[in-house]
């Protein structure tokens, strides 16, 4: 690893990406060497620049940031990943760490914590909020208290991905095309999601998915 940390940003909101880049490049020992808006673009940028760390937004254009985190962890373990998300950290932080990410920050807190997160990760540490770290550590000691956990924790990673795509306004056929699965399989996933989240009909599923994508909150 060089004296300057090379960083790639994978984020599909140009203004947010630009702000992150300016913030990071103020640091003398950090350089944003590339950026991308989706997983396929990220692969090319990572291959061309060989960064030390990749900052990944979970919600990307036509792709899923979690897939990229897993891919990097499996194939390029020398590259660290830091996950960004607008959604509840209690739902996504643990999933991200389990997928191989070295850190997780909420997008609304990124301007305050991204530089510290990068430094912690480059020093070999995991970076998450103190609340989430306590939750993760407690799981080694006892079963978690499920009373206040998000109902979305009942969903698998694939079910959560489909729930998010529904909230983005995609129809079953669009989801099937994007994920390279059949429309029938998407229908099966939709039924599982309805069952796990106790939605009575498809309209309730779609309404809650849209609200969650827009606000990060599941109304129920």
Outline the structure in words.
The protein is globular. The protein folds into two domains: 5-138, 3-Layer(aba) Sandwich (Rossmann fold), CATH 3.40.50.2300; 151-215, Arc Repressor Mutant, subunit A (Orthogonal Bundle). 52% of the residues lie in helices and 15% in strands. The strands form two sheets. It has a five-stranded parallel beta sheet with strand order 2-1-3-6-7, with helices on both faces. It has a two-stranded antiparallel sheet with strand order 4-5. The chain has 220 residues and is α/β, with parallel strands linked by helices. Mean pLDDT is 86; it is low at 144-148. The chain starts with a strand and ends in a 5-residue tail after the last helix.
Task: Please write out the topology.
Elements: E1 5-10, H1 14-25, E2 30-36, H2 39-49, E3 53-57, E4 59-60, E5 63-64, H3 65-75, E6 80-85, H4 89-99, E7 103-106, H5 110-122, H6 130-138, H7 157-167, H8 172-179, H9 183-197, H10 202-215
Helix pairs in contact: 1-5, 7-9, 7-10, 8-9
In short:
The chain has 220 residues and is of the alpha/beta class.
Number of domains: 2
Identify the CATH architecture of the largest domain.
3-Layer(aba) Sandwich
CATH fold descriptor of the largest domain: Rossmann fold
Alpha-beta content class: alpha/beta
CATH homologous superfamily heading of the largest domain: Response regulator
Shape: globular
Query: How many alpha or pi helices?
Result: 10
What level of helicity do the residues show? 40-55%
- The CATH class label of the largest domain is Alpha Beta
Give the averaged pLDDT, no decimals. Answer: 86
Could you give a short account of the major beta sheet?
5 strands, parallel
Strand order within the widest beta sheet: 2-1-3-6-7
Q: Could you spell the SSE succession in H and E letters?
A: EHEHEEEHEHEHHHHHH
Distance between the termini: 47 Å
Uncertain stretches: 144-148
* Percent range for β-strand residues: 5-15%
Q: State Rg.
A: 18 Å
How many β-strand runs?
Answer: 7
């Amino acid at each position: 690893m060089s004296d300057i940390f090379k960083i790639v940003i994978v984020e599909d909101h140009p203004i947010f990406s630009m702000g992150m880049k300016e913030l990071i490049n103020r640091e003398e020992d950090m350089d944003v060497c590339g950026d991308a808006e989706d997983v396929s673009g990220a692969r090319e940028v990572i291959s061309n620049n060989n960064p030390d760390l990749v900052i990944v937004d979970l919600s990307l254009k036509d792709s899923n940031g979690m897939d990229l985190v897993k891919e990097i962890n499996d194939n390029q373990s020398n590259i660290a990943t830091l996950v960004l998300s607008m959604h509840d950290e209690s739902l996504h932080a643990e999933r991200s760490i389990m997928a191989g990410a070295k850190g997780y920050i909420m997008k609304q807190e990124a301007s305050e914590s991204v530089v510290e997160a990068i430094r912690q990760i480059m020093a070999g540490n995991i970076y998450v909020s103190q609340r989430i770290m306590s939750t993760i550590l407690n799981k080694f000691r006892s079963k978690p208290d499920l009373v206040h956990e998000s109902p979305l924790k009942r969903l698998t990673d694939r079910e959560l991905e489909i729930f998010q795509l529904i909230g983005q306004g995609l129809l079953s056929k669009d989801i099937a095309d994007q994920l390279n699965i059949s429309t029938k399989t998407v229908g099966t996933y939709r039924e599982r999601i309805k069952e796990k989240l106790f939605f009575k009909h498809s309209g309730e599923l779609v309404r809650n998915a849209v609200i969650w994508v827009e606000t990060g909150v599941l109304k129920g």
